[in-house]
Each structure stands twice: as structure tokens, then as C-alpha cells.
């Protein structure tokens, strides 16, 4: 009988008795928070982890626990990756492809949240460009390295409920900018990317899923200004007014990373492929007004919508991917 996990499960509980020896994993965003927690859990169970980060000096210090807890052949290698620069993304991907070592798992963990309006090095709105387009190019450029039976896991968020993607104006050139609407767009894009990647690669035995890790106090909130904090307070108050609402509980980093390792290495591929997960299970589809924190919106799983985002993303980055 398979074990049952939930919101309070930790990475070590989810991976208890699981050997990842000989499996190679790419994890983006290993300079803090969930990225470090995810890498630590995987290496502690024998995985060869390649950790990507923009600031390698910071990442080297932050990942000391990963190296300390590595066991059964587990290891950590760091590579440079700035998702806000497609030249950096392409250079990282090119180096990985030239190395030639395949991946069993790719976990797209890195991201930014509710940033002030800005643009990436390539002129894309910061959150859409960093959270979605950077990972879109990276993953597609290394897709040939993913083994049959492999898996892609995209970290999304309950924040996807705040807004659908806007394919007519992805960079807020005509729409008034909202930090949280932008975040919602990018997190919806993370889910739709997983849906379409799963459709394109499942015949090779490679599956993709997206997930909400939960509310965790990490560096992700470092960009929030006074207005963004005010809007977040209003959003949380809205959740509290829902019928039967319970207070939102913050998770520890090992609890927050648990759904990532569960979706990547524990859950059955057919159960999570093309789906959105939370609290170590596949989330319920909820088509209701307002922000509910739990569940996934239908627009984030719509296959036609996922295909359209893929096509728009190819147009924006100037590349076509099989």
C-alpha cells in the first residue's frame, strides 16, 4: 500500500526508503530557500544534483548543508544561470549539452515574486521573462538530455489564481502594471508550460507536472514594496472570509519542498503528468470566483491554452522547439 502524505509532510518523510542513487537531477534556484531544501533532500538520498544559480558565491555558501548531508553517492555540482538573461540561459544549456550527461529529473524551482515593474536583459517583463521564458528556453534546450522515464517539475503557486496569462500583452505594454497580476500570469504560465511539455514528450516516457509548494517564508518576498504588501494583506483577508476558511499556515522549508520531491520522484508518472499538485497530492480543479489558495483554475490546465502559450513563447524568444 502506498504511503499517504499531506501539507505537513517533509522531504525526508516523503523520501523515506527511496534510493535516488545514480539518478541525476537539475534544480534551479539553489542559492536559498526551497532550492536548497530540495537539493539537500535529493542528495541525501543518493542523487547527483546539478544546482543552478545566478550568484555562485552565494549558492556555494547556501548549499553547504547539501554537501554535508549527501549520502549513498549523492553529490552537488553548481552551474551559473541567470534566468533574466537568455544569453546566460543559452550558455548554461549549451554547457550542459556539451557535457552530455543525461538527467532523470529537472526541477524548475527558481523565480521572483511581485517585483516592481522592470524588464529582463531581453526586454521582457521581469516576472514573465524570469519565471516562465527563462525556464522555457532552458528546459527545451536540454530536453534531449532527459532520459525516458524522466520528469519535469515546474514550481508554480496558488498565485496562478490571481490572473491568467495575457498572450496579447505579455509584457504589460498596454495594460496597467500590477505586481500580483504579473506574478499570477507567470505562475499560470508555469503550469501551462508543464501541460504542453507533457503532451509533447510523454510518448518518450517523459512526463511533466506543476505544483504549489505552500506558503513558506523565504527570500521570495524580498522584492515586495509597500503597495504589494498591502495588496497581499487584502488577498489573504479575502481567503479568510471564504465559507469554512481556515487560517493559512506557513510551512517549513522541508515541508515546502516535499511536494517537489514527491512529484519528481515518488508519485506515479501517470498520476501527475500534465497535472497541478499541492500538499503532496494532485489538486482539485476549482472554477470559483476569488482567490481560494487551494486548487487549480481550469484555464491553467486547458490544453489549447497551453499550446497557444508555447507558440507565443517561441515567438517571443525567437526559437522553435520540437
Blueprint (SSEs and pairs):
Elements: H1 11-14, E1 24-28, H2 33-44, E2 48-53, H3 56-62, H4 64-69, E3 75-80, H5 86-99, E4 103-108, H6 126-141, E5 146-155, H7 179-201, E6 207-212, H8 226-240, H9 253-256, H10 258-265, H11 269-272, E7 276-278, E8 281-282, H12 303-317
Parallel strand pairs: 1-2, 1-4, 2-3, 4-5, 5-6, 6-7
Antiparallel strand pairs: 7-8
Helix pairs in contact: 5-6, 6-7, 7-12
Structural class: alpha/beta
Strand content: 5-15%
Q: Summarize the main sheet.
A: 8 strands, mixed
CATH superfamily: NAD(P)-binding Rossmann-like Domain
Q: Which CATH architecture is right? A: 3-Layer(aba) Sandwich
Report the uncertain regions: none
Radius of gyration, in Å, reads 18 Å
- In CATH, the topology is named Rossmann fold
Biggest sheet strand order reads: 3-2-1-4-5-6-7-8
- Tally of structural domains: 1
Total count of strands:
8
Q: H/E order of the elements?
A: HEHEHHEHEHEHEHHHHEEH
Shape: globular
Helix fraction bin: 25-40%
CATH class: Alpha Beta
Quick check: average pLDDT? 93
Number of helices: 12
Distance between the termini: 39 Å
